[in-house]
Each structure stands twice: as structure tokens, then as C-alpha cells.
Design brief:
The protein has 254 residues and is an all-beta fold. Helix content is 2%, strand content 56%. The N terminus is likely disordered.
Length: 254
């Protein structure tokens, strides 16, 4: 599946107190969460059902399949345990892709490319709802309509016991070569990879590898470097999505 690098949207979430006061019965401000849209209804990875009764955005959540949502929780629906009415302040559609096996990716001309891509780790990398969720950054040519390809590759041979190894791969179709020039800019995108078909353990360790540019302490250089991180996976576990402040993400994804 390829991401079309196009229009950038800015979501700004203002955090406030989590408890209500006498003049305002809002239960929670700036709630940020990831979830799926089922028959037009948003269901968070935690299992909460959000019914949108107010909107501060033109985004059409009901047309998305998976989304990152920033909202104010207004009230709980009395007759249910986990349904809430919310004010939608912003949302973006999330690219959702199944991981691919390394042997398959290595044999595919486009998937075998390993151009630089960065995971906004550790803040914007988390597990919820059986997905590995991440905010990725990659270089694009300003105004370009070139499609980029991103995949999470499962390395079965490198995985042992309840430790699972994945490699994040990116094919920029030549655009990573213009990094740091006047024609380049950094693009960002939320991506979710379902992993329950691969990980059957109740608890597991996940290792994710990726290639990005090396830092000299103040800025990125043109030299690339391999990065790696470890995460703990718990079956049925939930991690709250981090709040995105002025986060730019692409909107046209296939």
C-alpha cells in the first residue's frame, strides 16, 4: 500500500484539567486516542464508544476506517458502560497495513528498498488494540506527488521464543536523495500495524529496527544510521495515545 504525499493538516490539542468544575461539566479535555471507525461510529482501542455531538473540525470521521482522534469528553451515556458523547476537535485517518514476512519483502523489488525513515520514538510509538502504532517521519520533495511505500517487515528467522523482530522499511522512489536541500521537507504520518496474527503469546518482547539519518547533536546529517528499540507487548493491553501538538500528517493514503 502506498502513501501519496500531498496536503498537510495541522492538529493542535490544548490540554486542560481532567476533572470538571461547577461551570463546566466536561469530563475530559484534549483526550487523544487511536481507534477504528465501525459503521460510522468511533470505537477506541480501549473499547470506548465515542458519539460525536459537537465538532470543531471539518474532518469527516465517519468516512475513515482507523483514526487518531483529539476530542473533549462531554458526558457519559447513562444506559451504557463505555459510551460517551464528545466534542471532536480534530482527527486524521491512519494508514493501516498488515506486516509482511521478510522472505516475501526481500523478493519484492519495491519492498526490498530500505530508504531512511524515522519513528518518533519513544513518544509516538505505542501498542493498543492489538496494533503497533507509530508516527513516522520521512523526507519528501516540496510539492511532489510521488507515492511512498512503508512496510513493517517481520523477521521470523531473527525472532526467538517470545521475542519478535520487525524492520520498518521505506521506499521513497528516489526522494530520500534530496534530503537537506531547499526542495525537501519533512513529512509525517500515523501508521498502525496489526500484530495479533503474528504474536500469540500473552506477553512478548518486540524489537523494531529502522534506518534514519545520523544526528550531529544539533541537526540531522546526510549520513544514515541504523536504529533499534524494544517494546513490551501484553495480550489485550492498552496504552493511551500521546497527545499530538501541531502535528503535521499526510491525508491522502491508499
Amino acid at each position: 500500500m502506498k502513501a501519496i504525499v500531498k496536503t498537510l493538516i495541522c492538529i493542535t490539542a490544548a490540554m486542560a484539567a481532567l476533572t470538571s468544575c461547577k461551570k463546566d461539566d466536561t469530563l475530559q479535555y484534549g483526550n487523544a486516542t487511536m481507534g477504528n471507525v465501525v459503521d460510522g461510529t468511533f470505537i477506541s482501542d480501549q473499547g470506548n464508544i465515542f458519539t460525536v455531538v459537537e465538532k470543531n473540525t471539518n474532518a469527516e470521521l465517519e468516512k475513515m476506517k482507523r483514526a487518531f482522534v483529539v476530542c473533549d469528553v462531554l458526558k457519559k451515556v447513562a444506559e451504557t458502560e463505555n459510551e460517551y458523547e464528545v466534542r471532536l476537535n480534530g482527527c486524521v485517518e491512519v494508514l493501516t497495513k498488515n506486516p509482511v514476512e521478510k522472505s516475501y519483502a526481500d523478493s519484492d523489488e519495491e519492498m526490498s528498498v530500505n530508504d531512511p525513515i524515522n519513528i518518533e520514538y519513544p513518544v509516538y510509538l505505542w501498542i493498543s488494540g492489538g496494533y503497533i502504532n507509530m508516527l513516522v517521519s520521512f523526507d519528501v520533495k516540496t510539492g511532489s506527488k510521488t507515492k511512498h511505500l512503508v512496510n513493517l517487515v517481520f523477521d521470523k528467522e531473527a525472532s526467538t521464543g517470545n521475542q519478535y523482530v520487525f524492520n520498518l522499511r521505506h521506499n521513497s522512489f528516489g526522494e530520500s536523495l534530496i534530503y537537506g536541500t531547499a526542495d525537501s521537507q519533512l513529512a509525517h504520518n500515523y501508521v498502525s500495524f496489526p500484530i495479533t496474527d503474528i504474536i500469540k503469546d500473552n506477553t512478548a518482547e518486540i524489537i523494531i529496527n529502522w534506518t534514519w539519518f545520523k544526528s550531529n547533536g544539533f541537526e540531522w546529517t546526510n549520513e544514515t544510521q541504523d536504529y533499534s528499540c524494544k517494546m513490551t507487548y501484553t495480550k489485550g493491553g492498552f496504552e493511551q495515545a500521546p497527545v499530538a501538538i501541531a502535528s503535521k500528517v499526510t491525508t491522502n493514503l491508499n
